[in-house]
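Lab notebook: predicted structure, single chain.

Context: the supervisor wants predicted structures on file for every construct in the current expression panel, including those that have not yet been purified. This is the next one on the list. No modifications to the sequence; it matches the entry in the shared construct table.
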Amino acid sequence: MSNLTHLDEHGAARMVDVSAKEASTREAQAEAIVVLSADAFAAVCGGTAPKGDVLAAARLAGIMAAKKTSELIPLCHPIALTQAAVEIEQLPVRHALRIVASAKTKAETGVEMEALTAAAIAALTIYDMTKAIDRGAVIESVRLLAKSGGKSGSYAAPRRVR
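Prediction complete. Output recorded below exactly as produced.
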């Protein structure tokens, strides 16, 4: 009925059987951009936000989320991560924070969803910790930057001008 791997021949959702695939090293990076008001950006970067260290909390939340991706996304396989990281770059001209999350494993399936989940949850954590200062903060985008490994090979997103 469809070329979508998560649908069976009748169109019903299913978890893909990856047991015939060979385990290989797989990596992925994803990003999220959070645009803040000048006051919220200053509080985050200056470490004076009312709820504490926003950047540390966001990094930890992202890593924790990567580890729980299969609990959050219904058809994702639970996989053992060998690495998960979240880096946050300040973009002062835009009063924005660029989150780059990465995940790595040696498994039969990829880690794109883990990297995307880490970036998204880190962004939501920043929103949560700054909403007292700026309820208008915007999570502008969440996207896959790159992936490697597996049958489909490598992917690199086109660069965007920030």
